[in-house]
Amino acid sequence: MSITYSCSHLDTPHAPLPPSYPSSSSSYHSLDKLYFCEECDSVRCDLCVATEIASYFCPNCLFDVPSANVRADRNRCARSCFSCPICETGLSITASDTSQKGTGSTSAQAGPPYTLVCSGCKWSSKEVGWQFEKPTGIALQLQKMNTQADLVQSEFDALKDHLDSYISLSTPTTSAPSSTRSTRNPSRHISHITHMAQKALHREVGGMVAYSVRNKRSATKDGQDVKVGWDELGEYEPKESWRKAGLERGSQEVDALREINASGSEGLARLEKRWAKSYDGSKMTRDSLPQRIPLQTKLTKRCPHPNCRHLLIQPDTKTVRMKIKMVAANYLPLVEIGRRRRRLPNSEIIESPDQMSSEDIERRRRERRRTRGGIPVREEDEPLNAPLKAGEVYSYQIALTNPLYDPIQIRLTQPHQTHKAPSPKFHLVIPTPHFTINALKDAWAYDEEDEEDDLVGVGSEAGFSEEGTAITSTTGTGTETATGSGQGTLSRKSRLSILSSGKNDRRAKDREGGVEKRGNVSKVNLELEILPEAKGQVEFDLEIRYTYRAEDLGTPTEKEGKTSSSEAKTKEEYKNFTFWVRVKVGHIS
Amino acid sequence: MGAFDPLITYEKGTYIETDTGNKVSRKATITGATNIILGGKSIIQTGSILRGDLRRSTAGQHVVISMGRYCLIGEGSIIRPPGKLYKGAFTFYPVRISDFVHIQPNCIIEAGQIGSGVEIGENCIIGKFVITKDLAVILPNTVLPEGTVVPSMSVWGGNPGKLVDTLPETYQETMEAKCKSYYQRFRAS
Amino acid sequence: MSRQAGLSAKITAHSTSIMCQDTDLKGDITISEGVVIHPKATILALGGPIEVGKNCIIEEGAIIINRSPNVLRIGEYNQFMVGCRIEADSIGDWNTFQPRSTVSAGLVISNHCTFSAGTTSFPASSHTHEASDGLQTETETIPPYTVVYGANSDKRKWDGTNQLAEQNLREKHIEYLREIVPKYNRLRPT
Q1: Could you give the CA distance from residue A219 to residue A166 in angstroms, rounded to a whole number?
Q2: Where does C38-179 show beta strands of DSSP type E?
Q3: DSSP classification of residue A87
Q4: C156 and A117: CB-CB below 8 Å?
Q5: Which of B3, B145, B168 sits opposite A338 (nearest CB)?
Q6: Out of A107, A120, A322, whose CB is closest to B145?
Q7: Where is coiled-coil annotated (chain A) (predicted)?
């Protein structure tokens, strides 16, 4: 049971592919995850927005790391935040308790050395021989303690020198064309990357040395071969024989195997822990070291359209507020589904489902409508998530919530499918395709005005329902549908008047036309007839078009500044917006 | 939001309603009530325990548990101030809970601070001195060890708890609407 | 409640212990000096008696049960934290049972062990043999300084870092509780 909204990404908005196409599912998202670009007048999702990193912070100490330092710190917290090598909890710094024995009671706050301790599994950095003189700047103290082996460092320096000449050669050629491209190319920071790479080469690289050497070499090679022939880079002669190092490592493996035999499987570090570490770690648990905690980011999101690129999300670095927040929830009505009811079989239409031909089904549908006119149809409330049964008729309520401060008119249809879809598993009837939703008001206003929700809406909606047509997923003949719905409208009125006889008149008026209104929410019915022998997931798309009042000309629009078509600016006071939702109703048991 | 959410009813008289709209179950265990502050429109459900008696060691009046508006302490959840040594003496520290905080049933909370718009799922154990910043979600059955820091807009899960996801930008509105709706639907039958 | 209706409480408590009124104590229970039992704690000596050693802390929602006919001896300075459920055969000194940790019958807990929040401990199946009389004849001993942690209740050994500081904390903690708890809670007479 879910309702998701379609995002057409950079395409012009169109009805998405029918649910039977697996490829169509990728463009659906829940409303709270969608964005809305006022300039393009369209929905954007996380898959299509362009993101940039607004700021970096450490999730443990919540320190905002200046972006200039992030690279040097290798995207991890450079202060004192480490994660436990056993359970990945953040480690805390504690003083050792050696001086406690003196008075026994008051001097628990002992001095150095300090250790990192895990509150989750009681691991302590003593186990790997880490102790610190000061309780602050642990990462820095550690860097001093553990410098790279000379062998690796000198090799790295030599390689750095070697590549330096190459990068200084290539920079002018890359920066010139990229500046002209930058106006339209979304990935214009490529030139920045080369600059950054150049800078990064001059920096200290810790545990990643061997890995980054290898990688950088191949990366620069691939990235640059267009501008500078890669063979312009002279052959690099390693200072040391790494073959020998490899052999050494081979013998380490043998030792490791022996240890595993001795310690059992617990001695072996888990795979995910080894992956979290840098290249070339030991496989044993006892060698696992605390890792500095990776930084998190706040993201700026932009409209992906090449001619737009307006900001959709701009976070504030200091607080949780957003400087710019263009989310679809403030523009599109929220669609919810609920109140599932199953029609109880009428005595006159008890037939075995397998004997029914298509005419039978048609007849049954007509029958169903007629019966509703006379005696009220018996329906039974069911839990929303219970499996559906083939051959049953279900009715649902669908609720739309208006996020705008103006009333809107809704047209609810099934999208016209140009693509050949497989034969449907069900018939969907929308008895009330046209209705209005009242404007969003401040919460306090509802208490008083709840009962007298504007009658204008009711009037116009009654007008709508006269011409309302039921649209089914089969291509039923025009006359059939029209008459059917005509009857439906009339009969529904009579039924509703029976139902609402006990309630007050105003409520009855609100219900007229099958719409139940409360505040800025309108609820209408959907009828779903599951065909006999249908199987699997029941899902369908709905096309929802809403008409809203555009703001007056000249004044800057605050809510609905949609000026997509030029003629709309001058003449029309009302505008339309169409979107598509996918309704997943459940499985047929 | 929540157009189809049903009413949540309780038997009349089983909850005490305060002037500021708090609803406190008569079957909740509240010790040291004078040290507890409720912001209004908050719900404390049956079987929950609030340890207002575990106060600071220094003399004077101390707030032990403070709670903002539109909060929920679910059935069987326990709120207990964390304690540690300060200058060689043991003392408890207050638990500060902001607005729009939902603590689902059977949680054990020893946090130091829970920011506004935080949802803590069922059966969570929030360790001593955990700091949860504004707008965060702790998934059901999560265990956060002592001293964990939960940053804004993050989702935590597992034992021990880890950062598993980030929240959509609309979360603040969603959570506030949810808390208000829950309060309005929570009525005597 | 009906199941335990016939069970009368026979509580022997030391005069320095603090037992809140709002607790569920059943069966033959001996409370040693300095013990603090918070409100809403449960101790059920359904089979044999339970002897709680000096200076233990039993917090709200903690449940200690002895179903076996033998005595369940609990050593000194143990902390039974919120919502833990302990059915161990015997418990040494200075153990910590963190919130909602579960220890099943058939375990002998030595000293300085930590059962982290939300973990479950039970004897390894190879050690448990149902004898013909239906009683468990073998038990598993949890060695000193064991830490049970994480979602899979893994075990590891604590290297004893900051042990003195932790013990100091425990001593101060219970001292403070003995001072503060009687001010706000009704106590059982000792």
Answers
A1: 13
A2: 42-45, 50-52, 57-58, 63-66, 72-74, 79-80, 85-86, 90-91, 96-97, 102-103, 107-109, 114-115, 120-121, 140-142, 146-149, 154-157
A3: T
A4: no
A5: B3
A6: A120
A7: none
CB within 8 Å of C76: residues ≥ 6 apart: C32, C53, C54, C55, C56, C93, C94
How many angstroms separate the most distant Cα atoms in chain B?
55
Inform me whether the C-beta atom of residue C22 falls under 8 Å from chain B C-beta atoms: yes
Could you tell me if C56 and C78 are in contact, meaning their C-beta atoms sit under 8 angstroms apart? Answer: yes
Helix (H, G, I), strand (E, B) or coil at A31: helix
Enumerate the domain spans of chain A: 13-58+297-330, 150-240, 335-588
Mean pLDDT of chain A: 70
- Token digits of residue B76: 């069987």
Which residue has tokens 């329902």? A465
Tell me the sheet residues that pair with C97.
C80, C115
Residue B170: CATH number of its domain: 2.160.10.10
Nearest to A97 among C156, C159, C162 (CB): C162
| Contact call for C150 and A121, based on CB within 8 A | yes
**A531-554 pLDDT per residue, tens:** 888 888 888 888 999 998 876 544
Nearest partner of C86 among C74, C71, C94, judged by Cα: C74
Does residue B4 sit within a domain? no
d(CA A31, CA A14): 18
Contact between chains at A107 and B134 (C-beta distance less than 8 A) = no
Give a yes or no: residue B92 inside a domain: yes
Beta bridge partners, A351, equal: none
**Which residue, chain included where needed, has tokens 């409100």?**
C39
Domains of chain C: 56-177 (2.160.10.10)
Q: Which one-letter amino acid corresponds to residue A469? A: T
Region for residue B60 given its phi and psi (left: phi exceeds 0; alpha: psi -120 to 50; beta: otherwise): left
| Residue from C97, C100, C170 whose CB has the most chain B CBs within 10 Å, to mutate | C100
If you search the block for the tokens 């479950």, which residue do you land on? C120
Q: How many angstroms separate the CA atoms of A290 and A123, rounded? A: 10
Tell me how far CA of residue A541 lies from CA of A13, A386, A422, A521, in angstroms: 15, 21, 14, 21
Q: How many domains does chain B have?
A: 1
Helix (H, G, I), strand (E, B) or coil at B36: strand
Contact A196, A71 (CB under 8 A): yes
Q: Is the pLDDT confidence value at A295 over 80? A: yes
The model's pLDDT over C97-137, given as tens digits with 9 standing for 90+, comes to: 999 999 999 999 999 999 999 999 988 765 444 444 455 55
B159 within some domain: yes
Q: Name the residue with tokens 């408590």.
A: C13
Picking from C39, C173, C181, the nearest residue to B29 by CB comes out as: C39
Establish if B181 touches chain A: CB-CB under 8 angstroms.
no
Q: Tokens 């959509």 map to which residue?
A: B168
Using one digit for the tens of pLDDT, what is the confidence trace for B15-37?
999 999 999 999 999 999 999 99
Q: Is residue B39 part of a domain?
A: yes
Q: Do B88 and A334 touch (CB under 8 A)?
A: no
B120-177 pLDDT per residue, tens: 999 999 999 999 999 999 999 999 999 999 999 999 999 999 999 999 999 999 999 9
ipTM over 0.85: yes
Contacts of B166 in chain A (CB under 8 A): 296
Q: How confident is the model at residue A147 (pLDDT cuts 50, 70, 90)?
A: low
Please say if the pLDDT value at position B44 is more than 50: yes
Tell me the per-residue pLDDT of A26-70, one tens digit each, with 9 for 90 and over: 778 999 999 999 888 889 999 889 999 999 999 999 999 998 889
Q: Which domain holds residue B66?
A: 21-188
Q: Would you call the peptide bond into B168 cis, given omega within 30 degrees of 0 as the criterion?
A: no
- Stated as kind and residue range, the H or E segment containing A313 is strand A311-315
**Chain A touching partners, 3 or more CB pairs below 8 A:** B, C
